[in-house]
């Protein structure tokens, strides 16, 4: 069985997932977090079920938090980098910059943020509720709850939950808490993607399964 930790090509990664599908008796999807940029158009090709599309840097600097107006620079790059994508998916950890800016200053409402959220929805993409924020000093998911609500208000439908695990010990961490948050916000379902389609999962049934 290939060790994914040591796979360095997209083709090998997809093949490794496909081989695991045959070896284990559960549904295994092929996904990828893709760092998107306004200056880069290349999208990997493969048998992907979905992607997480994330902005991690801007043309001016890969250390966004060191720029004079980091939030504005980040949101402008998000708006410029978002475009029609070949795979369904979700915009990753919107407001993640909070991890790095001074004082973990949160994102505030703005016309520019609304433009980003509207563009995500118009491209038939969703947003990811990323639980890794609970592993940071500000102890809050990315994005903040009001941003999730604003996304829905502006026509967004697809929401997923991810733990952004970079090690196996935190896989799935915080997912149950995120589901309860979404339920309190009145979000009825979360989504995953399979073979190019968004598949809904009722949040009430997922919470019940976790509490069994």
Summarize, please.
With 212 residues, this protein is an alpha/beta fold.
What this model shows, in words?
It is a single chain. The chain is an alpha/beta fold and 212 residues long. The chain has a single domain, classed as TIM Barrel. 31% of the residues lie in helices and 16% in strands. It has 6 helices and 7 strands; from the N terminus they run αββαβαβαβαββα. The strands form 2 sheets. It has a 5-stranded parallel β-sheet with strand order 1-2-3-4-5, with helices on one face. A two-stranded antiparallel sheet has the order 6-7. It starts with 9 loop residues before the first helix and ends with a helix.
* Cα separation of the termini: 33 Å
Q: What would the principal axes of the Cα set say about the shape?
A: globular
CATH 4th-level superfamily? Metal-dependent hydrolases
Order of secondary-structure elements: HEEHEHEHEHEEH
CATH architecture: Alpha-Beta Barrel
According to CATH, the fold-level topology is TIM Barrel
Rg measurement, Å: 17 Å
Count of individual domains: 1
